[in-house]
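name: query_chain
kind: protein
chains: 1
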Amino acid sequence: MPIGFEAYSALLITDMLNDFVREEGSLQVPSAIGIVPFLEEILKEARDRGIPVIFLSDTHRKDDKEFRHWPPHAVENTWGGEVIEELRPRPEEHIVKKRRYSAFFGTDLDIMLRELGVSKIYLTGVLTNICILITAVDAVMHHYEVVVIRNGVASLSDEVDEFVLQQLEEVFKVEVT
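structure:
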């Protein structure tokens, strides 16, 4: 299913890291592996069309305070914190390291998007109810058009996904496709 990216858009792939996708990962999202083939397809489409691809990467220090709430995961410079092999970023593609749920909080994502001439973002990855939700809301607050690709996101339950996607559509006027 082609996405039909516009020239002023970017594909954002969120937290498709070994710790979240792989069975051996410290915080595996079992449904994440199921979206990988679809993400491979749309990643190829974006690359073929010259659309900017930005990988949003949960990246923590060994002593991150977040580990009071979650087991250690996505620790910087570890296997668990690497993008999965199937989606490996190319050298010219951007990786935004984030320490919090929103990819806008404490990062240069907004500056990067504006420098690239991007006004519309396509969000994919994990988890729908955490990093996708919070990044989507922040993107709306930064005046971006936001599309969340339903077949390209995953969380721990379909019910959670449906609720979050409905809220994004109804409350924040995010396009869910």
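note: The chain has a mean pLDDT of 97.
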